[in-house]
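G., the chain you wanted modeled:
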Amino acid sequence: MLSRLTRLPRPVALAVCATPVLALFAVAALAPLPFVVAQPGLTADVLGVREGKPVITVTGVPTRQTTGQLRMTTIQATGPSTTVNLPELVGHWFDTTRAVMPKEAVYPSGGSDKEIERHNLREMTRSQSTAAEAALGYLRKNPADVKVELNLADVGGPSAGLLFSLGIVDKLDGDGAGGDLTGGRTVAGTGTITADGTVGAVGGVPLKTQAARRDGATVFLVPKAECADARAELPEGLRLIPVTTLTDAVTSLRALNRGETVPSC
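Predicted structure as tokens:
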């Protein structure tokens, strides 16, 4: 084959060589790729009401009325069974309101759409239980005396743990000096949480900051390890506060209310 090509005029030889290459590109362009396309998702005020029921209900101890908002944030992504091809990825790659992410980063458990949904809802339920444990531990409340019910199980994933804990702290203790932990602001954020109050990274932070600002937040609590990601496409008017623990988050919000220096990314 090579010897025959060398006897052809150069433009013809190049055209013949290009044919299989173009065919490969055409196949690649139409082939499904292991990526998902994500965008800013819903946010929900954990101090508020969802579907006619308070998101956080605490019984067994006195609670306080709160002002301001604590908004958990989400991303919305194409499902694991959705196919995305090269032209679509290229189009979304340059759109700052979208993100192209490896499928395993968004759906690490694998499985079908229904299996992923069930997995995420289990993770949210587990996150809520852990968040309550972390908040009561921080406040030195006996879990045997305090019952916490969280009503947001239809939003999947564990990334609202920090915000749930903060909501419980605000309802029980506020800023510790008679005021609101939020200072009346709309505060948003993201982060997993463990029973001892450690905050973990979650992914998708640039999209979550967009969702937060869209819904009125002026402060965003971000896992410290994800500061660089959060800064990359930070919406104007949104202040980043890095946290590594629940104590960090509470301390920073209290300092913000007093006009004191607060950590920043």
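Residues 1-8, 12-31 have pLDDT under 50 and may be disordered.

Shout if anything looks off.
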